[in-house]
């Protein structure tokens, strides 16, 4: 049963009062100054809405008074900020170092137990099981690796992207209640929306997102535990079902490290115009799930969960170079910035007269690249002229295809070929400048995996904890951005609090 929660302002007053009582009145100023970054993080992050979001997960009339969900969640975020991986160690730290308990919102002599934190995480998970699959299953084989260096695993079924996109466009998916929905809601309302209000996600009315997937390795073994009697009968290579501690993990091919891994794929949308490369959406998939399929599911999920957000541009790597994805983005009036896949390179002909380069640029009959001459808004088409009209190019042609001094003109429309004739021409400086922002997704993953050690020093072995850890590290990235963008400096405020109690010291 939940008690009446306090507002964020009341939590700030609690921080000031408790720090003065346990540290500043006793002359212990240095310990508070050493934790001023953690203090700034909890000072600027309003988590009071969490109690409202999770109220339905508590009994309204039966049971003892529960801990404030905002304080519990804040304490777990603080644990991530301080790079602590064990809840047991974190509870011990709060009991031995009062400032950690105070920053969490607890009294130093009233710190929750270890089991309380584990129960709270499970309460946020909208399912009775912490796994999405049964623990007993057959071992999964490794997928095929890319044929070339740095190439991702190929799709199992050709044409599956088109079929999935066509089905979703005809019958938009209605995402029913999923176990991770509370994590996603807290992340959106308490972190993504405030970041948008601070103006550090770019223009929300014309948002630019960069999508990509990254490998996340699990702490569980891929062998599983034998529950059959094959070995007793002399059979040492059986395919019988085994018991896995992390049954949702599978084998995947990491094209960057060029190695197989056992775990999951974390797919994320990053605000590409954000100066801090902040994530706005996260979702886990099987390790062998292709990025293009993960994008289609994530795109519809993101659009439905963020109806007030208008996506104007989408930046994707060559793994998403499928015509169905171009069609999907075109239907939602989104400009596609997608790198061409080397397996699909080649010229595209038009009426057996004009050829096109691999970047969709028209090539005249004399085998010269035509010059871009702007976009015609009235007819929604791009205009290309004879390369001889560009004096700086110094192009000579013995048999010009037009006698006009203006030179030959050719038009391309996006509807003719969504992949080649993109809304912003591939060869233009604008396309190259915008596509360079796609690396925001790489920097986002670097923050989650390297700075906050998402897949290192962990024994996480179930989907519930994986989702919590992924979202909590993303939340920490937003809090770090707030501190930097708002130039929050807690030192003057701490000295002011110390000055208020200084007469009591003397």
Descriptive overview:
- The protein has 506 residues and is α+β, with helices and mostly antiparallel strands.
- 37% of the residues lie in helices and 14% in strands.
- A hairpin with a 5-residue loop joins strand 10 and strand 11 (362-363).
- The protein is globular.
Write the SSE topology:
Layout (H helix, E strand, L loop, with lengths): L7 H15 L7 H5 L1 H9 L4 H6 L14 H13 L5 H10 L1 H7 L9 H11 L11 E2 L22 H11 L10 H18 L8 E11 L7 E2 L15 E2 L6 E5 L4 E13 L7 E8 L4 H15 L5 E6 L6 H9 L3 E4 L16 E2 L5 E2 L7 E6 L4 E5 L23 E4 L16 H7 L4 H12 L11 H23 L5 H15 L1
Organism: Sporomusa acidovorans (strain ATCC 49682 / DSM 3132 / Mol)
Protein name: Transposase DDE domain protein
Order of helices and strands: HHHHHHHHEHHEEEEEEHEHEEEEEEHHHH
Number of domains: 3
Shape descriptor: globular
Uncertain parts: 346-352
Estimated structural class: alpha+beta
Helix content: 25-40%
Note the main sheet. 6 strands, mixed
How large is the count of helical segments?
16
Mean pLDDT: 88
Please name the defining characteristics of this protein.
alpha+beta; 6-stranded mixed sheet; 3-stranded antiparallel sheet; 14 strands; 14% strand; globular
Can you describe this structure in just a few lines?
The chain has 506 residues and is of the alpha+beta class. 37% of the residues lie in helices and 14% in strands.
